[in-house]
Specification:
With 545 residues, the chain is α+β, with helices and mostly antiparallel strands. It is built from 15 helices and 26 strands. It binds adenosine-5'-diphosphate and magnesium ion.
C-alpha cells in the first residue's frame, strides 16, 4: 500500500463525521505523510472507552537530524513528546476521546517503545483517543488532532539536536557518566557510589520528584572517595565496598531513604533528579518479608530447616509463605539467579530471619531458622555482599566491613574495629552458607497473567502484587506491561528451563525487541532487567520439576 497525503485522511474523517464508531476502522494501517514523516494507525480502538488507538510515526533522519539514536537520546525524545502532548491532550467527547500522548515516565533513562530506533529512522508511538460523542464519530475533531496537535508534537522533534543542544548533551553525559562510574565500581570492588550533593529523598513515598529543600547528601572528607569523570569533572562521595555493610542511625535520620536510593541506582537518572550520581551494580536485589506470597520449589534450606511439618525446604513450595520463609526465598531466588548483592531494611524485613539473641536461643530449642547474621560472614566469603539497615540490633556489626551511621541525613563511616560490642549478646554460632540448588521452572498454559495498562497492580490467582511497591527494581508501569508480555510469550511456548537458561531466554527476547512479544507495539512498554521478569515468574503459581 502506498503513502497517502494527510489531506486524504482528513477527507475520510470529514466523511465519516457523525457515523458509527466502527467507521474509524477505515483508517487502519493506512500510511499517510505528515510533517515530512510517515504515520500509521497500527491499532484502532473499537469504542471510545477502549484503550486509545496507536499511532506510529516514522521520522526520517532528514527531519530529526540526530546522528546516533542511542538510549539517552531516545529517552529525551520520549520526554519531549510527553510534555508536548500534555499541552494538546484534553477530553473532547466520550471516554478517551481527545487523548493524545504517552504514559508517564519515571526519572530513569530507559529504552522504551514510545521512541525507538529503526536504522537511522526514529519511530515514535503515541496513543490517540479517536474522538466520539456517544458512539458517533467526531471526525472534525479527529482531523484537528492530526492537523494541529500531532503536527505540533512532531514540530518538537524537527532538527532535534539543534533545538535542545545543551539539555540533550547533559542528558547524554549523565548517562555515559553513569556507566563510567559503574565500571569504576567493578574495578575497585565497590558495589555502590553516592555522590556528595545528591538529593535522595522524594516528595512523597509514591513520587519521583525530589523533596524540595532537602539536605544534600554529604560524607565526611575523611571517608569520601574521589572519581574523575571523562570530562575532567571530579566527584566526591560515599563508595560502599563489597562485603557487609550496616546502615544505622536514629529513627527518621534517613536510613531507608539512603537504601532506597541505592537500589534505584541500578538505573541511570535524568539530570535534575538528584540521583544522577547514585550508581549501584545491577546485581543488587532488595529483599523484603512478603507474607502470603507463593514460593515455587525454592531451596531455602540454608536459612530454614526442620520445619515442624517435615516439609522439604530444599524444594520449598507454598501458596502462603510466612514472613521468614518469604524473605528466605527472596534471598535464595536472588542468589540462584546470580545476583550477589542483597539489600534489606529492618523496616520491611522479617526480624527472625535477621538475628536471634543468646537468651532467645536458650529458650527456643527447636528453631528451624538460621538467621542471616550467622550466615553473613560465610556468604561474604562466597562472594555475596550485604547492605542492611539495622538500628534495633547490633547482631550484624561484628561481621561488618563498613558501618554507616546516619545522623540528620548525613552519613559517617565508623571503622568496625572502633565499635565495642558485647560479645555475650548473640550466640557465637557461625553457620556455613551453601548456594541454593537451581530449579527448573516450567510455565504451563494453565498459568494466567494479565497486566492492565492503566493499573500498576498485576493480579495472579487471588494475589495482588503491586510491583512498583513490592519490587523497587521496577520503576515504571511500562516495565510491568513489558514483563507481562514476555511472560505471556514464555507461557505460550510452554517453557521448562533451569533458572540460568530462563534468564538467558528472557534476555534474548528483550534483545530481539518489543516486536518479539507483540504484533502491534503499543507506546507503553519499557525495558527491564531479565531478573525482574524472573522475580514475577517466581511469584506465579506454576509447576517445577
Ligand atoms: P529512617 O529510615 O532513618 O527512619 P527515613 O529514610 O525514612 O528515615 O527518613 C525520614 C524522613 O526524612 C522521610 O520523610 C524522608 O523523606 C526525610 N528525609 C530523608 N532524607 C532527607 C534529606 N536529605 N533532607 C530532608 N529530609 C529527608
Ligand atoms: Mg526506615
Amino acid at each position: 500500500m502506498g503513502i497517502v497525503p494527510l489531506a486524504e485522511v482528513i477527507e475520510t474523517l470529514y466523511r465519516i463525521d457523525g457515523r458509527g464508531y466502527k467507521s474509524y476502522k477505515k483508517l487502519s494501517s493506512i500510511k499517510f505523510s505528515i510533517s515530512g514523516c510517515i504515520a500509521t494507525f497500527t491499532k484502532i480502538q473499537s469504542d471510545p472507552y477502549a484503550p486509545p488507538s496507536v499511532l506510529e510515526v516514522e521520522i526520517p533522519y532528514k527531519v530529526h537530524k540526530i546522528k546516533e539514536l542511542r538510549t539517552p537520546v531516545l529517552d529525551f525524545v520520549s520526554r519531549i513528546i510527553h510534555s508536548a502532548s500534555r499541552t494538546y491532550s484534553a477530553k473532547r467527547g466520550t471516554g478517551n476521546s481527545g487523548y493524545i500522548g504517552i504514559p508517564r515516565l519515571s526519572p530513569c533513562i530507559i529504552y522504551r517503545s514510545s521512541a525507538e530506533a529503526r536504522g537511522s529512522t526514529l519511530v515514535v508511538r503515541l496513543y490517540m483517543g479517536l474522538p466520539a460523542r456517544g458512539r458517533r464519530v467526531l471526525g472534525r475533531i479527529a482531523a484537528k488532532m492530526l492537523r494541529e496537535y500531532l503536527v505540533g508534537i512532531l514540530s518538537k522533534i524537527d532538527d532535534f539536536p539543534n533545538k535542545y543542544r545543551v539539555k540533550l548533551e547533559k542528558h547524554v553525559t549523565v548517562y555515559d557518566d553513569y556507566f563510567f562510574i559503574r565500571k569504576w565500581l567493578r574495578e575497585n570492588e565497590f558495589v555502590s557510589f553516592i555522590a556528595n550533593g545528591s538529593i535522595l529523598p522524594r516528595k512523597t513515598s509514591r513520587s519521583d520528584k525530589p523533596l524540595p529543600n532537602a539536605i544534600p547528601f554529604m560524607v565526611d572528607e575523611s571517608c569520601s572517595e574521589e572519581i574523575e569523570l571523562p570530562d575532567g569533572k571530579v566527584l566526591k562521595g560515599l563508595a560502599i565496598k563489597s562485603g557487609i555493610t550496616v546502615i544505622t542511625g536514629g529513627g527518621f535520620h534517613g536510613k531507608s531513604t539512603l537504601l532506597n536510593s541505592i537500589i534505584e541506582g541500578i538505573y541511570p537518572h535524568i539530570p535534575g533528579d538528584g540521583r544522577e550520581y547514585v550508581v549501584t551494580l545491577p546485581e543488587a536485589v532488595y529483599v523484603k518479608a512478603e507474607d502470603g506470597r507463593i514460593i515455587n520449589g525454592v531451596d531455602i534450606s540454608v536459612f530454614i530447616n526442620n520445619l515442624p511439618s517435615q516439609i522439604d525446604t530444599q524444594k520449598f513450595h507454598t501458596l502462603n509463605a510466612s514472613g521468614s520463609t518469604s524473605m528466605a526465598a527472596g534471598i535464595s531466588e536472588a542468589i540462584e539467579a546470580g545476583m550477589n548483592i542483597i539489600l534489606f531494611d529492618e523496616d520491611t524485613a522479617a526480624t527472625n530471619l535477621l538475628y536471634k539473641d543468646k537468651f532467645m536461643d536458650e529458650i527456643i530449642i527447636e528453631e528451624p531458622i538460621t538467621p542471616l547474621t550467622s550466615l553473613c560472614t560465610d556468604m561474604k566469603n562466597k562472594g555475596i555482599s550485604i547492605i542492611g539497615v539495622m538500628s534495633a540490633s547490633s547482631a550484624m556489626l561484628p561481621h561488618s566491613d563498613t558501618v554507616i551511621v546516619m545522623r540528620k541525613y548525613r552519613p559517617t563511616i565508623i571503622p568496625p574495629q572502633k565499635i565495642r560490642i558485647d560479645n555475650d549478646l548473640y550466640p557465637k554460632k557461625r553457620a556455613c552458607f551453601r548456594k541454593p540448588r537451581t530449579r527448573r521452572i516450567c510455565l504451563t498454559r494453565r498459568t494466567r497473567i494479565k497486566a492492565k495498562n492503566d493499573k500498576i497492580v498485576i493480579k495472579f490467582n487471588n494475589q495482588n502484587y503491586d510491583l512498583l511497591v513490592d519490587n523497587p527494581r521496577i520503576v515504571e508501569k511500562g516495565q510491568i506491561n513489558y514483563a507481562a508480555k514476555i511472560i505471556e510469550k514464555l507461557i505460550h511456548e510452554n517453557i521448562c528451563l533451569d533458572t540460568t537458561s530462563l534468564l538467558q531466554r528472557i534476555d534474548d527476547i528483550i534483545h530481539r525487541g518489543f516486536i518479539t512479544v507483540s504484533r502491534i507495539v503499543t507506546p507503553d512498554l519499557s525495558v527491564l532487567y531479565p531478573f525482574d521478569v524472573l522475580w514475577i515468574i517466581n511469584r506465579l503459581p506454576m509447576i517445577n520439576t
